[in-house]
Design a protein that fits this description.
Elements: H1 2-7, E1 14-19, H2 23-29, E2 41-44, E3 46-49, E4 55-60, H3 63-73, E5 80-82, E6 88-90, E7 96-98, E8 101-104, H4 109-127, E9 135-143, E10 148-156, H5 157-164
Parallel strand pairs: 2-5, 4-6, 7-9, 8-9
Antiparallel strand pairs: 1-10, 2-8, 3-4, 9-10
Helix pairs in contact: 3-4, 4-5
Transmembrane segments: 99-121
Keywords: Membrane, Transmembrane, Transmembrane helix
């Protein structure tokens, strides 16, 4: 299935890589959150740096709405949790829909991608923006049985469903 993604000449829009650590462990280690979260789907902040080169953990603008949407629509995956702690919100450019990083530990990554696609569609309807004019950034970290994989999408809303929709659950066990 992954070969289909690359055949569409979208390699610059979707980066897939194996990662050595669980990002939730880093949040605990850095004292951003108190302890590990146990939900199958966890929204986590991104590590950014302030002007003084100190680490700042931030969520993209609109993360609360995204979290609420996931909680309403991801019943098959169980509860969605959010790693709140010493974090802030980072505002972005008007034509960029940056979604918070999601850590998923259930094999049903395709269900999550379908719900995120629906969220993007609903967002575009509310904002009255065409899908080819809004860029989407999303990182999904899939904790599998034997490895942890990071999928990072950076492209138009129009491309999101085509590219991410071809991802197969079996590729990330």
């Amino acid at each position: 299935m992954l070969k289909t993604i690359y055949k569409e000449n979208s390699m610059d829009k979707l980066k897939i890589s194996d990662v050595s650590s669980n990002p939730i462990d880093e949040l605990v280690k850095e004292n951003v959150i108190d302890s590990e979260l146990t939900s199958n789907v966890v929204i986590i902040p991104d590590k950014t740096y302030s002007e003084k080169d100190s680490v700042v953990w931030t969520f993209p603008e609109g993360t609360e709405d995204f979290y609420d949407y996931l909680n309403k629509h991801v019943h098959l995956l169980g509860a969605v949790d959010i790693a709140e702690g010493n974090t802030g919100e980072l505002q972005q450019h008007n034509d960029l829909l940056e979604l918070a990083t999601i850590v998923i530990s259930t094999p049903a990554i395709s269900i999550l991608i379908n719900v995120v696609s629906s969220y993007i569609y609903d967002y575009l309807k509310i904002k009255k923006k065409p899908a080819d004019k809004v860029d989407v950034k999303l990182k999904i970290v899939k904790k599998g049985k034997t490895k942890t994989t990071e999928l990072e999408f950076n492209g138009t809303a129009e491309d999101f469903e085509k590219i991410m929709g071809s991802i197969n659950d079996k590729d990330y066990d």
